[in-house]
Amino acid sequence: MKLILHIWRQKDRQSPGKMVRYEVQNVNEHMSFLEMLDVLNEDLIARNQDPVAFDHDCREGICGSCGFMINGVAHGPQRGTTVCQLHLRHFKDGQELWLEPWRARAFPVLKDLIVDRSAFDRIIAAGGYVSINTGGAPEANSLPVEKTKADLAMDAAQCIGCGACVAACPNASASLFTAAKISHLALLPQGEAERERRALNMVAQMQAELFGACTNHGECEAVCPKGIKLENIARMNREFVQAACLHREPARETGGA
Amino acid sequence: MKLDARIPAGPIEQKWDKLKFDMKLVNPANKRKYKVIVVGTGLAGGSAAASLGELSYNVEAFCYQDSPRRAHSIAAQGGINAAKNYQNDNDSVFRLFYDTVKGGDFRSREANVYRLAQLSVNIIDQCVAQGVPFAREYGGLLANRSFGGAQVSRTFYARGQTGQQLLLGAYQALERQVKAGTVKMFPRHEMLELVVIDGRARGIIARDLVSGEIEPHVADAVILATGGYGNVFYLSTNAKGCNTTAIWRAYKKGAAFANPCFTQIHPTCIPVSGDYQSKLTLMSESLRNDGRIWVPKKKEDTRPPSQIPEEERDYYLERMYPAFGNLSPRDIASRAAKRVCDEGRGVGPGGRGVYLDFADAIRRLGRQTITERYGNLFEMYERITGEDPYRVPMRIFPAVHYAMGGLWVDYHLMSTIPGLFVLGEANFSDHGANRLGASALMQGLADGYFVIPYTLGNFLAGVKPGDGITADHAEFAAARRAVEERLRRLLAIQGKRTVDSFHRELGHIMWEDCGMSRHRKGLESALGRIRALRGEYWQNVKVVGEEAEINQALEKAGRVADFLELGELICRDALERKESCGAHFREEYQTPDGEALRNDAQFAHVAAWEYAGENASPIRNIEPLEFEYVHLAQRSYK
Amino acid sequence: MTTVAINQEAERTITFYRSVVGKKVMMAVTGFLLFGFIVMHLIGNLLIYLPKDSHGQWPIDVYSAQLHAIPELLWSARIILLVAVILHIIAAWQLSVLNKLEARKQGYVRWTPVASSYASRTMVWSGPIILLYVIYHLLDLTFGAFNPGFEFGQVHRNIVASFTRPPVAAFYIIANLCLAFHLYHGLWSMCQSVGIAHPRYTPVLKIASKVIAVAIGIGFCSIPLAVLSGLVR
């Protein structure tokens, strides 16, 4: 089969970019979308042109590296799927496709379809963890966790940090990403001790990175390759409101003798 | 080369405790003065960087991905072993140790494996405390399952995404240290050279993959946790970016490379569907708990599976290995699949596949239960193949998965270069000739959380922080020049063939002649062909683009150049190991019924290869292995 | 001591409001107050369909008189509503600047909605239209500025006088369709913003929001149509 691609080409962070049209011949429906781009790139190299740069790594839908817009939908038309697992059987022969990088101020384009998602790391660094040093852990089964809570936490923890939620959001909000981590830890007893601090700091960091605000469109949930639920954003809001209203400053430590 | 494994004296249960007490400590106030480089941020590297940061060492962590959270540990599906004996099924540290040594076909170091089994229990405690959402029973306690080749339920899991959850735990701990300022993170950086000064590892040369800048980084110790080299086969279950460059550079600077030919082939992967294929996808081994593996009894039977009656099916694993059946260890299951396909009884396009059938399990347990257990795996299979495994049996075939071999390390996880430590899949230490399911995650985390924080301290306590070395040192300048020249050379060749076409060809040679089964002739021919291919590579490869930009073709070109050298070493190691053991199967050395035939008299040792220069053959050093606690015996899963 | 505490509380409020979540909570709470008003207002308005009572008075006029009977109450309500409107608008303005102008400087060449509703994407337009209408509506029926022959307290008469002019009726209908759209997304959205969500109740809540929004739209729009068609005279 054959595809017509319009791909965003941009040399580096500073340069302006533009859509460039390519035709890919001789691809078949069993190929993954990225394998089709591999074919295009081999062809571009043969013609002495710069291959299209795109992030990818595991190619099995779990590392979260890959992702771009296909015809205006993050990760393309198939639900619950990253582009690396999207196969060409979901497209028609001769179809015209527009590929664009994630667009958000917090995700500057580095080259072609590659964006800088380090803002996500900084959101996690702001509080997306349990403060436990190596070696300080109690016996694992000393802390029972209700199965349904553990399952819900796992649902949220499945986030792969690909950024599709931000890309799809009309407001470029990172609420689903942030909420997934806040939810994961808020649902577990292990996360209880830092619950308030976590919600306050992560929400503040999300905002400092210049992501937009959630206005409950639900686009993020629809494109999330891991099916992270909008319910998590409600939980984040709840956690934040609770923390903002009830948070107390910790006592200052005084020196020992 | 002298290989001193530095195994502490005393009974095996006490070795680690004794060593811990004997080791020197670094004054807490001095820790921040020591700079430690960690390359790779998977389970081993991520957990090491976080733990060392917590101890307040001055850590710099590097990864080629855009975030430490993306390391390929994330793709591990099945689970992590730990000798907790929560199921009261008579598991113990000793049993996990025993199983691992036996599963590794007696080619691993007893002391290391015992320590791994001991630490396994701490890992679970640590991860649970971090908030890793392991599967739970209704009573709220942790759930276990049995996993590939184990007769006890000791595997902890988080749906089919255990690696992801464990890695996110380590990643979160790492980001906490980034925030605390003890760890400085360098994402989108690739280590291209190791710098050795006065016989000690003193830093690395890294390329900033965004700006293309070549940067020297000085340290008091370097930790490599850069994973496995399975991509030397081109098609593997590894991530596209997984490479050997870091450990290969270290090898060329004097670190011994141990048992490179021990590469594990995983039995349950989705078969290759065409030449364009860029990677192989693993289906968790846990599927073998309920799925039954079969092929038609008749050769070249092209009937759809539903039309092949029960009596014309060969459930070959159940037939050949009645005790373990579909749960036989990976190497055995893989070879059996190859054998039936070689007989012409393989299924699917090209005849390279066997059925993994859930019809019985669905009948017995109901579709609901199967969905609960394997729902996400079934979905993944359908996404990739377009077939519904609830109705049609899955087709699976073995694929390259894990490298048991790697840089040689002693009991302290230090390589033959002082100050260079190697953790996780990048080292060779714990899995011998074959790794058991759910043991890789265990090893990565044991190394990173619980071994390196102590052994690194012991090393650093013996050296002065900084020691007056800066990035201006002549060795740094030379290493940097070498890196730049190499990159420029790759860009200047401007030949006719793309990097991928060379990589594919290398992979083909490796898979055909150094894959699931190997023989002398094939290996000798492979050695010649790899050498020729490498010669052509440096004449005819085509890399477009520039040095000072994001250039994914250039990144690949450097990695494949190293694979072309490693491939040769793997074949050489396979050729020299004149026995069959674990994943290494030499056709010349097998029992009459086709099982691996070990030669303990001559090969109960680690082969540690030493680089001897560009035009010299590498030197094969030997570390003899002694088995005091697990007695050498032929593995039998019948 | 007290000053510190007060400052801390002030600081806390500011921090809360500064966050995007805080602003959304503000929108939800003020939105809820306004929604309450709308429901009451609609119930009041629907009295227009009742015939004159035994004293020969329109029930809607009586109701209006009762509302005006206690000025303190009336003005308290008016002030609360006015503050709510202002806060709702300020928060909306600030969020829109962030969302539409700041967070994504360069837009997509192609963008295809997958899950969002037309209503949710047009909140930023339906809101201002409603605002413009409310201003006109107050001038028309509360202050009588645009109403031909306005008589204070003669609500029935004033309404009929206003809506017999087709352009005014049309404006009213458009504005109330906007209101229905606004509520269509807003009602469920405000629950989500303050953190009310549960897999069992959220779907019900979403449907209920839509039903209520449609009912409110129909309720309001029926009045000018009734006037124009001569049903209410």
Structure write-up:
- In chain A, helix 2 packs antiparallel against helix 6.
- In chain A, strand 3 (69-70) and strand 4 form a beta hairpin.
- Chain A has two domains: 3-111, Beta-grasp domain (Ubiquitin-like (UB roll)); 117-132 and 140-246, Fumarate Reductase Iron-sulfur Protein, Chain B, domain 2.
- Chain A has helices at 33-46, 118-125, 147-157, 164-168, 175-186, 195-208, 219-223, 231-246; strands spanning 3-10, 17-24, 69-70, 73-74, 96-100, 109-111, 114-115.
- The N and C termini of chain A lie far apart (79 Å).
- Helix content of chain A is 33%, strand content 12%.
- Chain B has 15 helices and 21 strands.
- Among the domains of chain B are: 265-401, Succinate dehydrogenase/fumarate reductase flavoprotein, catalytic domain (Flavocytochrome C3, Chain A, domain 1); 477-603, Up-down Bundle (Methane Monooxygenase Hydroxylase, Chain G, domain 1).
- The longest helix of chain B is centred in the middle third of the chain and has 27 residues, at 359-385.
- In chain B, 59% of the residues are buried.
- Chain B is of the alpha/beta class.
- In chain B, a hairpin with an 8-residue loop joins strand 20 and strand 21 (619-624).
- In chain B, helix 2 (43-54) runs parallel beside helix 5 (162-180), helix 12 (499-514) packs antiparallel against helix 13 and helix 13 packs antiparallel against helix 14.
- Helices cover 36% and strands 15% of the residues of chain B.
- Chain C has 233 residues and is mainly α.
- Chain C is 75% helix and 0% strand.
- Chain C has helices at residues 2-18, 20-46, 59-69, 71-102, 118-121, 123-142, 155-163, 166-193, 202-228.
- Chain C is globular.
- The mean pLDDT of chain C is 93.
- Chains in contact: A-B, A-C.
- Chains A and B meet through helix 1, helix 2 and helix 3 of A and helix 2, helix 4, helix 5, helix 9 and helix 10 of B.
